[in-house]
Amino acid sequence: QVELVESGGGSVQAGGSLRLSCATSGDTLSRYCMGWFRQAPGKEREGVAAMDSDGPITYADSVKGRFTISKDVDKNTLYLQMNNLKPEDTAMYYCAADGSIYASLFAHEYGYWGQGTQVTVSS
C-alpha cells in the first residue's frame, strides 16, 4: 500500500515562494513514478511536474523555470519548490504515485493520491 501525505501549503503574495512536501512510505520513491498535480475550483486537475523513479522529469509549460520537483530517498519525501508564485497558481496541490507509467502529467494514469494541500497566492 502506498501512503502519500502532503504538507507545506499556505498563503503567499505574488512573487513569493513555497516548498511542498509529500511524505511517502517504504520504497515508494525508488519504485514509483511520482507527480505533483493541482486543481483549482471549477477546473480539471492538471499535472504540474512528474519524476520517474530513475530520474527523468517533466514539467508543465506553465511552471517551467519557476517550479522544481525533487526527492530525498533517505527521508522518503518528494518536494515541489515553487518560486515566483502567481495568483493563477492558486489551487489544491496533490502528490500522486504509480508504478506503471513514465514521468506522466496525466492524472488518470496515477493510482495513488494524497489528500492535498492548499496553496493561495494573492496579488
What does this structure look like?
It is built from 1 helix and 11 strands. The protein is mostly beta strands. The termini are far apart. The model has no long low-confidence stretch (mean pLDDT 96).
Question: Which whole number gives the mean pLDDT?
Answer: 96
How much strand?
over 45%
Structural shape: globular
Distance between the termini: 40 Å
Short description:
The protein has one helix spanning 28-31, and strands at residues 4-7, 10-13, 18-24, 33-39, 46-51, 57-59, 67-72, 77-82, 91-98, 112-113, 117-122. The model has no long low-confidence stretch (mean pLDDT 96).
Write the layout of secondary structure elements.
Blueprint: E1 4-7, E2 10-13, E3 18-24, H1 28-31, E4 33-39, E5 46-51, E6 57-59, E7 67-72, E8 77-82, E9 91-98, E10 112-113, E11 117-122
Parallel strand pairs: 2-11
Antiparallel strand pairs: 1-3, 3-8, 4-5, 4-9, 5-6, 7-8, 9-10, 9-11
Task: Give the tags.
7-stranded mixed β-sheet; 4-stranded antiparallel β-sheet; mainly beta; 1 helix; 11 strands; 123 residues; 3% helix
